[in-house]
Amino acid sequence: MTRIPTLRQLARDILSCLPVLLGFLTIHSALAAAYIVPSASMEPTLRIGDQIGVIVPSYGLSTANLPFGDALKPSSETDSRLFGHLPHRGDVVVFRAPANLHQTWIKRVIGLPGDTVALVHGRVILNGTVLPWKDMGSTREESRKNVWRAAERYEETLPGNIHHDILKTSQDGELDNVAPFTVPASHLFVMGDNRDNSADSRVSVADGGVGLLPVWNLQGQARAVLWSWRDIGRTALVL
């Protein structure tokens, strides 16, 4: 005859499994994770629906990496990461969105602490130097899923000869001019590669953007497109 377990036995069995479950969550959080790109803000590098692989400990670990990290943000933004170090300019990073810590966003690092940043007619001026652009020709931007509009593609070069492509749909949009400022300590200036369709560091947190991104918010570095249902040829694309 099969015995029906008591509530006490069930509770004991569940508790005995907790270390295994917590171990899995810790390994997943500490080593790697996968995310689905929800928007067009990183086109042409990433497209809507791309599944990306993220190396979590790229910049050390913080409570932002924990499943309930939105409730564990430190009061001070200094010394908020274990084994922490800064990203490189040009890294594609995932992070808890400052405007909504329940959400994970993805952008590219442009400015590091101490950098002076400005934008004039869409061109980034980093520490007094205009980032070079190379016109790569006309293309299309998927502004929303299955909604397309004309765009121009450029290759932008960061210090250290770091190249990445960007999209522009306007030559003098509302986000194309930013007065010079210095990135403060423990913060980053990040931008979407789709420069006219990205609520990034040019947009304040109060207006739903990233603002200057606290280093605490970082969850890892995006390294590759693991899978793309909409474009199989992008699968295993290294970023």
From TrEMBL:
Keyword Hydrolase tagged: yes
Stretch forming the signal peptide: none
The reaction(s) this protein catalyses: Cleavage of hydrophobic, N-terminal signal or leader sequences from secreted and periplasmic proteins
EC number: 3.4.21.89
Domain Peptidase S26 stretches: 14-227
GO molecular function terms attached to this record: signal peptidase activity
SUPFAM superfamilies recorded: LexA/Signal peptidase (SSF51306)
Broad EC category: hydrolase
Chief location category: membrane
Its membrane topology: Single-pass type II membrane protein
Family: Belongs to the peptidase S26 family.
UniProt name for this protein: Signal peptidase I
Origin species: Gluconobacter cadivus
Gene giving rise to this polypeptide: lepB
